[in-house]
Amino acid sequence: MQRFHVSATGHSLNYLPQYVAQDLGFFADAGLTVTSEVPDPWMQVLKDIDCGRAAAALGGIWVPTMFYEKVRNYRAFCQMSARCPLVLMSRQPVAGFDWHQLDGRLVLVTGTGGSGSYVLLSGLAHRAGLNRARIRFVRDLDYDMLLDLFLGGLGDYMLVDLPTSRRLVTEGSAHIALDLAQSGGPVPWSVYYAPAEALDETPELYARFLVALQRGLDWIHANPLSDLTDTVGRLWPDHASDEVIGWLEHFRASGMWNRTVEVDPDAFDVWQEMLARADLVERPLAYDEIVNAKPETTSTRFETNTA
To answer: Tell me: the pLDDT tens digits for 196-232?
Structure first.
């Protein structure tokens, strides 16, 4: 068995395909012992893959986009999440969300996990015809701090995770304005990436990981998620398993996971335009500049030991 360590930017519901592949033995079938951890701060993932402590980072593709030809070249070799898992909450009930409702409003977007949430929200507003400069943002504070401030009266809207959105609705503290998993459109939200030279030096290692992850993805699309009660109970012990399974079913129905683990080219191009418009990069990058599309690491025809 060969070790494959993943340094992830979070422990997230939308990372389910990896957890399934681990628990159901798909990685083991490929001869891999896959481990993962979430470092604090999350930027440590870069040090982990730079020094070889981790084989891959799991997080936003905006990081390798910004680092390209500036600091170090990383390449995304596999897509995990195809939608943003966040929900825009409003202080007042919203009957039929329209992006122009954000005109002049104060929107709280945490900076804890990076810039992706702000880039997507402002990018979607722009595509709907609203100048992002018309939206007032607070986006530099810790998530828990912003949530406390929102509940205390700051802001008109806040972007939160799915479990928090459900809790706020149950408590009567806020209202769902827009579920980005349902209505935000395709985006390569979470990808696996590694230093370009690591992918070139050990392509077979990454190919085996990819094939096993694809099996996890296939399983999710073909089976009742209620079969994952034990997995869910272990991963999210602070929540009732049936509640978590309901959240996962919501994500599956919303298109969170594509049928293939390959990075979606069309969604990639849209995301690159948003990143450039937000000034994170000088220009939208081409797909083959930061996505590893070599046959040996994108083919799903590698054999695994399923005996």
So the answer is: 999 999 999 999 999 999 999 999 999 999 999 999 9
**Which range (112-116, 141-145, 194-198, 241-245) has the least confidence?**
112-116
Transcribe 140-200 into DSSP letters. SS-HHHHHHHHHHT--SEEEEEHHHHHHHHHHTS-EEEEEHHHHS-----EEEEEEHHHHH
Is residue 81 within 8 Å of 256, Cβ to Cβ? Answer: yes
Residue 43 neighbours by CB distance under 10 Å = 12
3-state secondary structure of 219: helix
Which residue in 89, 255, 137, 131 sits closest to 187, CA to CA? 255
Q: Give me the domains of the chain, ranges plus CATH numbers.
A: 2-83+187-298 (3.40.190.10), 86-183 (3.40.190.10)
